[in-house]
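User: I'll paste a sequence; please echo it back and then give the predicted structure.

Assistant: Echoing your sequence first, then the prediction.
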Amino acid sequence: MLKAWRDYGDIVRLNIRGKTVHLVTRPEHIQHVLVSRRDNYYKGYGYQDQKLLLGEGLITSDGELWEQQHRLMQPFFTPRGVGHFTDIMFDATRRMLERWAPKADGRQAVQIDDEMARLTGNIIVRILFGRDLDAGSSPIDEAFQYCIGFIDRRSADLIALPMFLPTAANRRFKRYLAALYRYIDERVSEHRQDPEADDFLSVLLGSQNDEGGSMSDTQLRDELVTLFVAGYQTSMHALTWTWYLLDQHPPVLARLLEEQQELLGNRELTPSDLRNLSYASMVFQETMRLYPPVKVFIRQAREADTIGGFHIPTGSLIVISPYITNRHPDLWPDPEHFDPQRFSPEQAEHRSRYAYIPFSAGPRICLGDNFALLEASIVLTMVTRRYRLRLVPGHAVIPSMEVKTRPLYGMPMTLHPRT
């Protein structure tokens, strides 16, 4: 797709897997698909594989069901709503730093992508279920990891084998998915018997829809799996790339530390400081511009349409790629350069809101945007106040060209105490 865009321009018709596909890259065309004519573009092709894991959760559902679930859950993910998760984020990060202390000699390599997965997994499981997730031994973590990887690989395959075939991969996916469902059902059962429980699952169990009813057990399970996948994967990949970019750009790290010194001096970070960590937020946003957690969004045309003067046939696919749009030179001068200043209020106000879409856009924008920014500000500040992370010399850093933007060969880094 990158080559097609560079060779042929901002709207390109492709044939992929026998499907007519249109890659659109300009903000006005993205707005047309996701906002202005959103009723004509639905989540069709490409989402059946996701439904194997996510069921009818917020990412994969559509129509009246999605609207009902969105109204029910959206208040919990406003800037004010995610503030209730701050203490968990602080504590999980603090425990990670303590666990790192014996390795902070500048010689032992730590797989930062694995560490960020363990951290974000712990945070989201504590938020959802009030439990710790020990990534080194928890069978539920292994089940999540395998199921997510299975769906990602299946989505990327040109020809995916039907699920009814008893292949080793299919059998293993079904076994892990069953274990995952058992775990969630057990947590739901426990919470129903414990009126004193105080976590996100308790809130969901007590919430009601517009008709005064609660979610069915199946719908609740689908939403919990969706929240875990969204809260876990988005942050783990983006944070991993942030450590790499900070190591490669010392002036940006120096500016980040300068903001901390000006705000905190020698004291510890507190929740009340978070709204003033503007540069930390800018660093994370610039990371997601270069390495958006998800590279493509797909929509399918219900009826024929026209975009930018080009005919869009009924049933054809629209591909929107944050990875490409975020590199468009008309929108981002020197687009491959890492420059958090792009997200200063002065620069951001002159840019189309559809030029930067790591969380999609319009009514279907991911609910986790405020959550991810809050989590990143906490983690970036707490880690950089104690350690400097440096890439192991000679390690090849290459982004995977799968749907998710992960480092293809991992991210081994050494830990160095701040002096």
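Residues 217-248 form the longest helix (32 residues). The two ends are 45 Å apart (CA to CA).
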